[in-house]
Structures are given as C-alpha cells and as structure tokens.
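wait is this the right file?? whatever heres the structure
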C-alpha cells in the first residue's frame, strides 16, 4: 500500500492555565518575539505530568505560586498552534483563581487581563483567523468560558 500522500502530524504538548480574577477577567500572555496573546503555560518536561507542568510554568512565567490542589482540570484541547505553523497543539487546560497582578518573567514580554466582555468577543472569532489571539484561547473561551451566542 502506498502512503506517500500521508503527512505526519507534528505535535506540541503543553499545559495551559486560565488564571482568573474574582471579576472573571483572565490573564493572557505574549511571548518575546511574537504578536499573539495566549493562555500562560508551556511544554511538558520529561517525566513531568501536565499538572506539574502547569504549576511550574505559571510560577516561571508570571511569578504566581500555585499548588496542585489550586488547579481544576478543564480537559484536553487540540488546536492549531499560534506561533509554529504546521504543528498540532495538544493542550491540557487547567483553571485557577488569583488575586493581584502577574509579573511577566522568563520568555513573557507582556501579560494582559482580558475582561469577560472581551472573552465573549474572542469566543466568536474563527480559530483560523483570530489574531492577535491564539487559537487555543478562542476554543477555550468558546467551550469553557461561555458561548457568546448563548447569552
């Protein structure tokens, strides 16, 4: 059987976290050298669970110390990547509440709070044309933070 037309799917596996304030706003981040805002988080290290990765990445990127029991799993989301064309992004997404403001660190150039109203607008965008937002943010906003057409 000839499989010459089969394209291997390259995958990036990450943990991402919805960090929200009491008013429902969610923090998004933009990495150095990029122009898209996304949920904070990052790639799993060898032997690390998605939950352990989420805790580590939030502390490294934003200086927000979390404990594993502070995070709620929202499930797995498969989307296009924001900055690596041709890759599939497999994301284990968690949520946590926080007080105060995150402090951009490591590869994070900017952290920005997104209000509930802005999240509704982001949820209405098509994932393949959602700049300056990442496709994962659009999907999570739509599926987990409220469908704008339902309001």
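ok assuming it is, sequence goes like this
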């Amino acid at each position: 059987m000839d499989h010459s037309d089969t394209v291997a799917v390259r995958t990036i596996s990450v943990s991402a976290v919805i960090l929200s304030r009491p008013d429902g706003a969610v923090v998004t981040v933009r990495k150095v050298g990029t122009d898209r805002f996304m949920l904070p988080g990052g790639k799993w290290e060898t032997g690390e669970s998605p939950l352990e990765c989420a805790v580590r990445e939030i502390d490294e990127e934003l200086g927000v110390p979390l404990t594993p029991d502070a995070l709620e799993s929202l499930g797995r989301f498969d989307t296009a990547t924001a900055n690596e064309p041709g890759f599939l992004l497999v994301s284990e997404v968690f949520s946590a509440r926080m007080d105060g403001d995150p402090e951009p660190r490591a590869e994070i150039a900017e952290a920005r709070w997104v209000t509930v109203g802005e999240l509704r607008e982001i949820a209405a965008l098509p994932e393949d044309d959602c700049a300056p937002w990442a496709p994962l943010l659009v999907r999570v906003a739509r599926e987990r933070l409220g469908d704008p057409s339902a309001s």
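The mean pLDDT is 90. so i think its the right one actually
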